[in-house]
Design the sequence.
């Protein structure tokens, strides 16, 4: 159980590192590529590749077995993939990546609320304290008290922030909902169909805008790099790894790693943009890592408890299967 928790933690760290970098790459790409073309192209490239891989690996097992499952995967993808991407990228066009980073901790709050309301997981004091510490660290890093929504149009700034928040709501619903469907299908099957089905509305919007594909072809190299990164790393690899982690963890634990995104953005700024490390990044980083440590410890204890309960159940079953003649009967006077 301990090794599995550690492995899941490494996977989630990698996922959110990819997503933290994607905010910067996406901003560069959206400067020259129309939003709907950017989102639709990514889904159009990745979804057929995932379907082919899923079919080669699982055969007919990857086909949804009921109309309910088809609808479930469509809604899942709409909330957490196509819809989430459209909302987030729309917001990112109006505000800086740092503002989106400030709002990132809200995804953990939404996920925890939905999980508790739907009784998908239990709440513990350790987990709650960890979330509070991680949220505080994320906000300290970005100095939320000093950050203004940087846009010449305050209405556009507010709209951008609200779009980003709505994308986090959709992604939180996606995290909580996918737990059920993952009991019946593999993570590869779920991500393949969720992305493919939810991409249909995006394609329908793209068709009338076919003339805008010319802007994609004439986009500069840096925009193409942003598109390639967002397609193969942020959309394909990161989503697949996130689903893998979901089969071995809970929605709140998965989303809690999003607290690392603001810290990662700050670190990337130091490494690639020459920003200087000050006490905000240092203190905020410590708080965030400490908070995540408490969340991981809480999850580790839950896994150990589940393992103990399963062991007891197995022992009880073995006792029931034993021949009664082999069981030693102790007289009552000896017990006394």
Sequence:
């Amino acid at each position: 159980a301990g090794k599995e928790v550690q492995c899941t933690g490494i996977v989630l760290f990698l996922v959110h590192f990819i997503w933290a970098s994607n905010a910067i790459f996406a901003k560069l790409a959206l400067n020259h590529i129309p939003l709907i073309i950017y989102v639709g192209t990514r889904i159009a490239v990745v979804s057929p590749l995932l379907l082919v891989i899923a079919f080669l690996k699982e055969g007919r097992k990857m086909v949804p077995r009921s109309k309910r499952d088809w609808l479930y995967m469509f809604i899942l993808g709409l909330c957490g993939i196509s819809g989430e991407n459209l909302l987030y990228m729309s917001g990112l066009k109006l505000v800086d990546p740092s503002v989106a980073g400030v709002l990132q901790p809200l995804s953990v709050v939404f996920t925890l609320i939905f999980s508790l309301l739907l009784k998908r997981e239990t709440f513990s004091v350790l987990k709650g304290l960890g979330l509070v510490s991680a949220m505080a660290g994320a906000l300290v890093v970005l100095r939320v008290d000093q950050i203004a929504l940087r846009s010449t149009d305050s209405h556009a700034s507010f709209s951008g922030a609200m779009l980003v928040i709505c994308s986090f709501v959709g992604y939180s619903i996606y995290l909580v909902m996918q737990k059920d469907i993952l009991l019946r299908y593999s993570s590869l099957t779920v991500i393949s169909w969720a992305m493919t089905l939810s991409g249909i509305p995006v394609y329908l919007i793209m068709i009338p805008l076919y003339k805008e594909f010319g802007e994609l072809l004439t986009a500069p190299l840096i925009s193409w790099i942003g598109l390639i990164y967002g397609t193969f790393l942020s959309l394909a690899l990161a989503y697949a790894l996130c689903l893998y982690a979901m089969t071995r963890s809970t929605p709140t634990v998965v989303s809690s790693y999003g607290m690392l995104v603001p810290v990662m953005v700050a670190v990337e700024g130091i490494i690639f943009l020459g920003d200087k490390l000050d006490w905000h990044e240092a203190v905020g980083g410590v708080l965030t890592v400490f908070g995540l440590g408490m969340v991981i410890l809480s999850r580790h204890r839950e896994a150990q408890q589940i393992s103990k309960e399963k062991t007891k159940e197995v022992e009880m079953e073995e006792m029931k299967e034993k021949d009664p003649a082999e069981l030693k009967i102790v007289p009552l006077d000896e017990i006394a």
Observations:
- DSSP finds 14 helices and no strands in the chain.
- Residues 148-152 have pLDDT under 50 and may be disordered.
- The first helix runs from residue 2 to 30.
